[in-house]
Amino acid sequence: MNSSVAAVLKSVLLHLFVGGLLVSSMHFVSKPEPKVIEISAPLIQAISVDKSVVDKQLKQIRDKKAAEKRAVEEKKQKERRRIEAAKRKQKEEAKRKADEKRKKEEAAKRAKAEKLRKKKEKEAAKRKEQERKKKEAQRKKAEEKKRRDREEKKRKEQEAKKKREQAERLEQEKLLQEQLKAEQAARQNRQRQKQVLTEVQKYEALIKQTIQRNLIVDDSMRGKSCRLNIRLASNGLVLSVKVLKGDSYLCRAAESAVLKATTLPMSSEPDVYEQMKNINLTVEPDL
Asked: How far apart are CA 280 and CA 74, in angstroms?
C-alpha cells in the first residue's frame, strides 16, 4: 500500500511540476498561484486514488493551458495583425500622400511645361508675326521701289522720247532749213551763175572787142579763125597767151593783139574772175 501511495504522489507531483513549467514559460499570462494540494495526513489514507482520474485532471489542466496559450497566441497574432494593418495603412497613407505629392508635382510640372509651351508658342507666334510684318514691309518696300523705278524709268523714257522727238523735230527743222537754204543757195547760185555767165559773156565780148581793135587784118584772113588760151590776173593783166589751134597767120596776129593790149577787161567780182582767169577765146577777123 505504501508503495502505491508513493507512486500516486510522485505522479501527481510530476504533473504539477510539468504544469508549473508550462505556466512559467508563458510569460504573457500572469502566473497562477500554484494550488497547494494539501495532503491530509496521514498519507496512507490516499491509497485508493484512481490513476485515470488523475490523468483526466492533468489532461484538463493541459487543455486549459493549451487553450490559454492559444488565446495568448491568438491575441499576439491579432495584435501583430493590427500592427501590420496599421503599418500597411500607414504605408498606404504614406504611399497615397507620396502619390498625391508626386501627382501634384507632376501636375505642377505639366502646368509649368504647358505654361512654358504656351509662352514659347506665344513667343514663336510673336516672332512669326514680326517676321511676317518684316517680310510684308520688305515686300511693300520692294514693290514701292519697283513702282518708283518703273515710274522713274517711264519718266526717263518719256523724257528721252520727248528729247528724241524734239531732237528729231529740230533735226527735221534743221534739215528743212538746210534744204531751204540749199534750195535758196541753189537758186541764188543758179541766178548767180546766170549772172556770172552773163558777166563772163559780157567780158568775153569786151575782151574780143579789145583784141579786134588791136588786131591787124587783111583779106587773107577772111573766113579764118584762131583759138587762144589767155591767163589773166585779177586786174586783167595778161599773164600768158597760148595758141590752141587755128590759122597760123591769124594766130600770130591775134597773139600780138593780146600782148599789145597788155591788160584786158576784167570784172571785179571774184566768181566772175574765177571763170575768166584762164579763158579760151576764138578770134575771128571782122572783115
From this structure: 178
